[in-house]
Fold:
Amino acid sequence: MDILLWENKSIIRKVVANRPDISVSSDFIVGFPGETNKDFEDTINLIMEIGFDTSFSFIYSARPGTPAAEFKDVTTENEKKHRLAILQSQIMRQATAISEGMIGTKQNVLVTGISKKNAKDLQGRTENNRVVNFPCDDHSLIGQFSHVKITDALPNSLLASL
Structure:
């Protein structure tokens, strides 16, 4: 195993041990020239081991003037798209499990504004950066912290009550 990867995993484990509810995020590029099936499988295994729950993930694209732009690329675009879909699906499964695990818990939320889904609701963010929508007409809470109880987990947000 690469020593840098080992060190980073060690750091992440220590952080998670001290803050089990922390959100772990990273950027991923699939289809870099020379990426093998094993390389991709190793990436998926790392995602599962660390428990990443958010990411920015993309298909590699050559940048003119960079050394990598000269590398031979034998992976088809269809394979790159397939790998990206697998990666994003795995992270979504992990994010969903984390969100569902928050149902019934009380969360400290920074109220950021009026919900985009319902003008009668407010929206905020949990300490692990989840979007939360909850019924409330007290706009003086915007910009403040408020405690809410998570009642449901949707694909990209949580529902809560005050």
